[in-house]
Amino acid sequence: MWRRLRSALRSLRGSPAAAPHGGGGRPPAAMERAVVRCVPSEPKLSLRFVLPDGSARHMQRDQAEPLGRALARIATNAAKGHGKAGKKSKKARAEGDAEGETAIPPVRLFSRDGAVVAEEVPNAAAWQDGAVLHIGDARYRVERNPPALTELSLPRSLLAGFPVCPKVSAEFAAPQHCLFRWFREQRPAGGVEAAGEAWVETAAAERVFTPSNALVGLRLKLRCTPGDGEQRYGPAREVESSGPVEAGPGACTFDARHLYTQKVCGPGSVRAVSYNILADTYAQTEFSRTVLYPYCAPYALEIDYRQNLLKKELAGYSADLICLQEVDKSVFVDSLAPALDAFGLEGLFRIKEKQHEGLATFYRKDKFSLLSQHDIAFSKALLSEPLHKELCEQLAKYPLVQEKVLQRSSVLQVSVLQSTIDPSRKLCVANTHLYWHPKGGNIRLIQIAVAMSHIKHVACDLYPSIPVIFCGDFNSTPSSGTYSFISSGGIAEDHEDWISNGEEERCSMSLSHPFKLLSACGEPAYTNYVGGFHGCLDYIFIDRNALEVEQVIPLPSHEEITTHQALPSVSHPSDHIALICDLKWK
């Protein structure tokens, strides 16, 4: 980062004073910049400035060190720089043209109100924003912790009609306070490159830019100026797209659904989404391309293409809560978290044990704040937490089943959220993805038993009587033991799912939980539709004592789902379908 600031320091020598777009905060043109980075958690502060001879200086000083020692060091550096610049030729020295030793310039620091800062003041307190450093006749305006970009990047794939969400990371700044300017490539006239400027600024000045069909074939450029919300701005950076805007797929399966979700719910309601988005780690295998999804065009299985669709789909739901399954860690960090942040959603991620994908929960920042997180891995919790001691002892009677349960990588993400509008309202939001195997009903029953015990601990013991919203891909149809257990509160020891993988793996026990849970979206014909299977596997379970359903957003029609035979397709990014419902407190 500081290498970038160094070039910025050089470029800003003698630069105009005004902040971008007329904001305040930059020093007058006659002053240089002295950039100070001082963070309480670090023992040293850094100081960067450019001497009159053009040489850049970078100093690291202890924050507790007296200012006088730092100023003495600056003076020594300045003298060295001056001495190098003023060296005479050997001939001149031979002729006796000696002017004596290079004088050490006076160096002082003045506070914003013009008073000299005492030399015994610690560095951390002395180097304040707006102070003025004097090195001989040169003047430097101190900029303490100025906004700076640490990362700026654009997605590799750009589609017309789909939002382009840059990844923006900054220090002493926030994306919502940055300034954004979008440019498009100049289109050659008659096949000849246009003279002059190669980029034309668009009318867009927002963080997210949606290119029109007119921009197909052209690359994009983004110029971002970091800001801190207090009219302070740092050096701008630019990034160009690696490729041109390409034509989009036309109508998508979620377009009609967006007609129901154009606006965010009112303050007394919560829009929840649950969606298995198909991890890239599974979509990009030879088995997936040739056996699972042979009907899907190969380019439509590429993660860059699918991310375009996913970001548009999720942003268009205007949701307050989004629970995702099969989220690649890199997709969360580099794509979904930055994109959904631009639409007002904060993301939490929990990776599976020994896997590259996991769960993500997003919540609308102006509606909720995060109180606490209580994520677990089922296998570890079963062995280590006293809460599950009785279940663990029962499971030990069935070593074959126990071994399979403990080998699974499944996790449970639990987040406790508090309403920013009414702090008395809290929610326990759970998210999971249970074991997938068709004959693994007994394994899923153990996993869901651990999940319900853990949720009970959070929603009854830690936060008494707060409502539960439990989302996920449960890999269980409405006729399964897992669905029956969740919705009824218990399961008998003779349920057929206890022998889902044959008599040798029989595992019989009676389970119960205290919640009254309802599938908010009912029991759709299917939420997963692939070439060889379709069925309802995904649910949003809600606490029926505290919450009720306002509306369920209709699923895409069967015709839309099967336009390209099955899912995923060029118009749908996953093999699952998102569940969306509007809830309200009773």
From TrEMBL:
Protein name: 2',5'-phosphodiesterase 12
Cofactor section: Mg(2+)
Matches recorded under PANTHER family: 2',5'-PHOSPHODIESTERASE 12 (PTHR12121:SF37), CARBON CATABOLITE REPRESSOR PROTEIN 4 (PTHR12121)
Family per similarity comment: Belongs to the CCR4/nocturin family.
GO cellular component: mitochondrial matrix
The species this protein was found in: Leiothrix lutea (Red-billed leiothrix)
Xref: InterPro entries: CCR4/nocturin_mRNA_transcr, Endo/exonu/phosph_ase_sf, Endo/exonuclease/phosphatase, PDE12-like_N
An example Gene Ontology molecular-function term: metal ion binding
Annotated Gene3D superfamilies: Endonuclease/exonuclease/phosphatase (3.60.10.10)
Residue segments, region Disordered: 78-99
Entry keyword ATP-binding: no
Gene designation: Pde12
Biased composition (Basic residues): 81-91
Compartments where located: Mitochondrion matrix
Main location: mitochondrion
GO biological process, one term: mRNA processing
Domain called 2',5'-phosphodiesterase 12-like N-terminal: residue spans: 146-246
Keywords, alphabetical: Exonuclease, Hydrolase, Magnesium, Metal-binding, Mitochondrion, mRNA processing, Nuclease, Phosphoprotein, Transit peptide
Keyword Phosphoprotein appears in the UniProt entry: yes
